[in-house]
Amino acid sequence: QVQLVESGGGLVQPGGSLRLSCAASGTIFRILSMGWYRQASGKQQRELVAGITSSGNTNYAGSVKGRFTISRDDAKKMVYLQMNSLKPEDTAVYYCNVELRKQWGSRPEDYWGQGTQVTVSS
User: Fold this and answer.
1) Cβ proximity of 77 and 100 under 8 Å
2) What is the sign, positive or negative, of the torsion defined by CA atoms of 14, 118, 8, 64?
3) Of the candidates 38, 36, 22, 37, which has an alpha carbon nearest to the alpha carbon of residue 77?
4) Distances (CA, A) of 32 to 12, 28, 58, 85, 116
5) Are strands 10-12 and 116-120 parallel, antiparallel or unpaired?
6) What's the CA gap between 37 and 46, in Å, rounded?
7) CA atoms of 35 and 48, how far apart (whole Å)
8) Residue 1 or 49, more confident
9) Which of 63, 64, 90, 99 is the one with CA 20 to 30 A from 40?
10) C-alpha to C-alpha distance for 29 and 25, rounded to whole angstroms
11) CA distance 105 to 14
12) Averaged confidence pLDDT in the chain
């Protein structure tokens, strides 16, 4: 099967930086899109923070544009989220999401990591 393991979360002061990483492993033929979502405490839905396609096109939530950068390394099957100028409102559990094909010609499947906590506080 497929596993996504996130790392890099933690406690940081406002204005600080963190870098999240997500490693995919298992039966993977090709990774399609990759992205990061977050869910703040008390909120029912996860929101898209940043996404990156297989061709490298990126998109960001308006609230993080200019502060966060998503990147991917297909050889390592990893996706990263560099977060700068962090604000208290960035506090949330961050989830890695990957869309992939397990075999040539198979339908795309969606996978989620377990989440990593990011807390921005003084």
Assistant:
1) no
2) negative
3) 22
4) 31, 10, 13, 29, 22
5) parallel
6) 6
7) 8
8) 49
9) 99
10) 11
11) 46
12) 96
